[in-house]
């Protein structure tokens, strides 16, 4: 029995290594000279590890920033979604990100309010699978502006909905996930190779662990 399981596991391992190798071949063909993109890689706090996502930002002609992306691992429903002052996400509850980005010194509101913080981006809404798709243009900010630039600041997702009025935070509860807005170079060949080999190694480790677990179960 164990022998059969070992053969099955070994062939699974073989297949995943073949997959990893063909992924590597594809990465080698990628153009290394692509320009950097502005992204925020969203990660949940220690207490909300399942949350992850990625947002891409672009300056809009005539003002504002266009944002596209997806965040998963959320509880279904609305979650406050803001640009906070600082890109420091070192605190376990993300307190280090500071308050909402508010270069105008105004009161809290929502994207459609007359008075709002530049960082008041309202709410994102997760579907019943916990996935929020985000696409929108936010006025009053730019990527690199001296006064209203958001580069190096952070995107913060909250546990609850932003009521779009209560100053200063919209009463949206804990900070559960965040990401720093930064320029990322596309992966170089070396990065791609490393990520593929890391992935292959992880698969090998998973399969080994699977065999060990099965052996224990059989005993
Ligand atoms: Cu916030």
TrEMBL record:
Keywords: Signal. It comes from the Bacteria. It holds the Pfam family Sod_Cu. Residues 1-25 form the signal peptide. This is Superoxide dismutase family protein. Residues 98-121, 162-219 are annotated as: Disordered. Residues 182-219 have a biased composition (Basic and acidic residues).
